[in-house]
Amino acid sequence: MEERGLLVGLTGEQVVRNFRFYSVFPDNEEFAVRDESKEVGSILSPPPQGERFALAGRTWEVMEIDLKRKTVYAKQVKGKVRTVWNGGGGSIHSKILQRMKRVLKEDITYSYLQPGAVKRLCEARDLVR
To answer: Rounded to an integer, what distance in angstroms lies between the CA atom of residue 40 and that of residue 56?
Structure first.
């Protein structure tokens, strides 16, 4: 506060009139991705209209972006997309990183993965080797 005081919890939320005030973890604003009538997932920053992106093991083309509703309308298309990383390194616990390394070094096939994810995992394992 201007008087060098500190507001916490629900009181602070009421003063600033923003529910994000009380959040403990960073809050990313996501865009819902819709294919006709169904939601297929979400992304943090939508590519421009006409561009392609990968989501849920498939390739999508942006048909329209509704900034007000935070929704990307897309259609599934054939082809590949060059993977682009727009984020930072983030903060990942070392145990998670160790497990990721083991997954890349082992030859286990996970039954719950979709075919596209299995192929992507095999490509990543080949790259690691």
So the answer is: 7
Cα 81 from Cα 89, distance rounded (Å): 22
What's the confidence (pLDDT) of residue 79?
A: 86
Contact 33, 43 (CB under 8 A): yes
Query: What number of other Cβ atoms are within 10 A of residue 39's Cβ?
Result: 10
Q: Cβ of 34: how many Cβ atoms within 10 Å?
A: 18
Element (H, E) at 115: helix 115-128
Q: Tell me how many degrees the CA angle 79-42-36 measures, rounded to the nearest 5.
A: 65
Least confident of 19-23, 64-68, 78-82, 114-118: 19-23
Q: Among all chains, which residue has been given the structure tokens 């604003």? A: 29
In percent, the amount of the chain with pLDDT more than 70 equals 73
Mean pLDDT of all residues in 15-29: 59
Structure tokens at 30: 């996501």
